[in-house]
Amino acid sequence: MNRYIFSQIKKTIINKRFIILIIAITATIFICEFESYSFEYQFLDFFLMGVYDDTTAIISLVFPLICTIPYALSYYNDANSGYGELILLKTSKTKYSVSKYIVNFICSGLSLMIPILIYYIFCIIFCGTSVDNDYITTYNTFLPEVRINYPFLYGFIFVINSFLCGAMFSSIALAVASWINNKYIIFLSPFIFYVATQFLAPVSYYLSSDRLYKLNTAMMEYSKLSSILIYDFILLIGAFTIFIIGNHYRFNDRKG
């Protein structure tokens, strides 16, 4: 199935829809931040402000929808076009499920990470690489020691986190697709989960998925790396398990 995985990833990232999505997200970040362009900012503060403040009302709200566009609906298309049945003539349901999950994970993660990486590189070029650790910054709740001692690594952690968020929330859509045969519900499911967990925040902010994307805006006790990773792990394993079981029953006349 390695050949299938690579061919599906290649097919997705050179698809016109994927390219347009990357351009649209990148343009949104740059346009929303345009009025704030100033050489007075340090690169890291400019980056975090652009991705998590000025565009918060746009990117951080709709990213669960954005990440489903590249590949999450492909499983729905496979199941309803008969293509999934053809694939299962050559391989087992388990291998098909794992391959589908991996491709969705990678492509969806890249759809969110690439624009943010482009903006991160731009911030370094535009603002320069000098760092003043005495500069007072509000972006200091998540891994403050890394923020002060390794600013470039700190910024790159947020880039990697955007990949994980895109991959995780798109995995929710894939899991739903294995049980529900409605593309609109599948497409909206990550966003519904994202919004629903916000209502749980008054009960416990640990349940809020909002802090997964906006690492730097969460309060200190909720932005600990261990807490974030546990949430990530539960979400990924949960979505994967639901998808595997759902795929098994959807194609229950196939072995494997």
Describe this structure as you would to a colleague.
The structure is a single chain. The chain is mainly alpha-helical. The protein contains twelve helices and no strands. The chain has helices at residues 2-13, 16-33, 43-54, 59-66, 74-81, 83-87, 93-127, 144-149, 151-177, 183-199, 210-213, 225-250.
Protein traits:
256 residues, mainly alpha, 12 helices
Write the layout of secondary structure elements.
Elements: H1 2-13, H2 16-33, H3 43-54, H4 59-66, H5 74-81, H6 83-87, H7 93-127, H8 144-149, H9 151-177, H10 183-199, H11 210-213, H12 225-250
Largest beta-sheet characterization = none
Please provide the count of β strands.
0
Per DSSP, what share of the residues sits in E-state strands of 2 or more residues? under 5%
Q: Element order, helices and strands?
A: HHHHHHHHHHHH
Helicity range = 55-70%
Structural class: mainly alpha
Q: Overall mean pLDDT score?
A: 83
The best one-word shape is: globular
**Poorly predicted regions:** none
- As a whole number of angstroms, the C-alpha radius of gyration is 19 Å
